[in-house]
Design brief:
By secondary structure, the chain is mostly helical. It has two domains: 39 residues; 100 residues, Winged helix-like DNA-binding domain superfamily/Winged helix DNA-binding domain (Arc Repressor Mutant, subunit A, Orthogonal Bundle). Helix content is 49%, strand content 8%. The protein has seven helices and three strands. A three-stranded antiparallel sheet has the order 1-3-2. Strand 2 and strand 3 form a beta hairpin. Helix 4 packs across helix 5. The radius of gyration is 18 Å and the shape is globular.
Length: 180
């Protein structure tokens, strides 16, 4: 099936197909998704490169394809600003992820709160409008890059604590490696 320009296609049919594909792939790991999308690309004659990252539901900014790192950690960065500059985050979610990485790894904290991350971002001159939405998109991502570890209080605005997953740490390690 050749690529059809959007203006000549049935937008609702495309949306229905994309919804079905998203539902079918949502619980698979990134390598399985890549194999399936490559098969579909080959089978239906589409062209283009398939990224190994899945787009976040809230923000489509976490689709950077990067090489695996040689070494990881914050040990080669004395300041958060150095790490931030090396990672070159794009979009609010990546900004939050990089700063969370710094807070969690360099300060040996088991978890962190959104306020700490946003405060560090503001100190760097890169504050974001909605830190909760940025962290939410990292949580919604499969595999999760961040998880919520606890919530203090019963209201929706209660203080929540978060932690980077191993996948979140690897993601930032790859961001840093691109620069090295």
């Amino acid at each position: 099936m050749p690529d059809v320009p959007i203006e000549n296609s049935d937008a609702m049919a495309e949306l229905t197909a994309m919804t079905a594909v998203a539902k079918a792939l949502q619980d698979l790991d990134s390598q399985s998704v890549r194999r399936i999308l490559q098969w579909a690309t080959d089978r239906f004659g589409a062209t283009g490169k398939i990224s190994t990252s899945k787009a976040a539901p809230i923000e489509n900014e976490l689709t950077i394809e990067r090489e695996a790192p040689a070494q990881s950690g914050t040990e080669s960065y004395k300041e958060i600003a150095d790490l931030y500059a090396a990672a070159k985050p794009k979009g609010d979610a990546e900004k939050a992820l990089v700063v969370a990485y710094w807070v969690q790894r360099s300060k040996a904290n088991g978890d962190f709160d959104a306020g700490t991350i946003n405060k560090e971002l503001k100190n760097l001159g890169h504050g974001i409008g909605n830190i909760t939405a940025a962290l939410g998109s990292l949580i919604a991502r499969r595999p999760n890059l961040v998880i919520q570890t606890r919530k203090a209080g019963t209201s929706q605005q209660a203080r929540k604590r978060y932690k980077l997953t191993n996948e979140g740490v690897k993601y930032v390690d790859r961001m840093i490696q691109v620069e090295d």
